[in-house]
């Protein structure tokens, strides 16, 4: 387990960087499919409608990757470039810990590990909505890898 912990970021970071080098259409198609599947209940309940057609930028600081997300006709759209209304920025590890609900977004924010810029009202509404998601309600193909990653960092070393 210790060896896996030591190498997890060494494996995850290059994988995400490599994904960032894949053709744009492949990246946006896979991410759109992933997020539409994972957030289907929110989309069907119109809980993401407050975004309107605004684009949200996710900037992964330590590997300098950006993806932009929007909701249009109850579908999450993904782009590599867009005019973002709000930007969430953090290191890959912190974003994964946030997604796995192993760390509170406010904790990361006050530690300056997560920044929200642009339309902060929109950003806070989105942060609060995502924070209210239950990890157990996510599809297994999202929940299990996030839980595994988080468990590596919560286990005693």
TrEMBL record:
InterPro entries named among the record's database cross-references: SCP2_sterol-bd_dom, SCP2_sterol-bd_dom_sf, UbiT
Keyword Chaperone: no
Pathway in which this enzyme or protein is active: Cofactor biosynthesis; ubiquinone biosynthesis
Record keywords, A-Z: Ubiquinone biosynthesis
Gene3D superfamilies referenced in this protein's UniProt entry, alphabetically: SCP2 sterol-binding domain (3.30.1050.10)
Residue ranges crossing the lipid bilayer per the database entry: none
Residue intervals of the SCP2 domain: 36-131
HAMAP family listed in its UniProt record: UbiT (MF_02231)
PANTHER family: SCP2 STEROL-BINDING DOMAIN-CONTAINING PROTEIN 1 (PTHR10094:SF25), STEROL CARRIER PROTEIN 2 SCP-2 FAMILY PROTEIN (PTHR10094)
UniProt record similarity statement: Belongs to the UbiT family.
Functional summary from the UniProt entry: Required for O(2)-independent ubiquinone (coenzyme Q) biosynthesis. Likely functions as an accessory factor.
Descriptive protein name: Ubiquinone biosynthesis accessory factor UbiT
Organism, as annotated: Bowmanella denitrificans
């Amino acid at each position: 387990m210790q060896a896996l912990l030591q190498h997890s970021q060494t494996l995850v970071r290059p994988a995400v960087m490599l994904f960032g080098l894949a053709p744009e259409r492949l990246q946006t198609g896979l991410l759109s499919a992933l997020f539409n599947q994972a957030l289907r209940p929110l989309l069907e309940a119109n809980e993401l409608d407050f975004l309107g057609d605004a684009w949200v930028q996710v900037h992964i600081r330590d590997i300098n990757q950006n993806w932009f997300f929007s909701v249009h006709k109850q579908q999450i759209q993904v782009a590599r470039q867009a005019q973002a209304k709000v930007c969430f920025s953090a290191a890959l590890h912190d974003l994964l810990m946030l997604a796995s609900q192993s760390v509170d977004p406010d904790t990361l924010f006050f530690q300056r590990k997560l920044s929200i810029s642009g339309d902060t009202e929109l950003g806070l509404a989105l942060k609060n909505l995502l924070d209210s998601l239950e990890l157990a309600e996510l599809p297994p193909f999202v929940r299990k890898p996030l839980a595994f990653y988080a468990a590596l960092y919560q286990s005693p070393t």
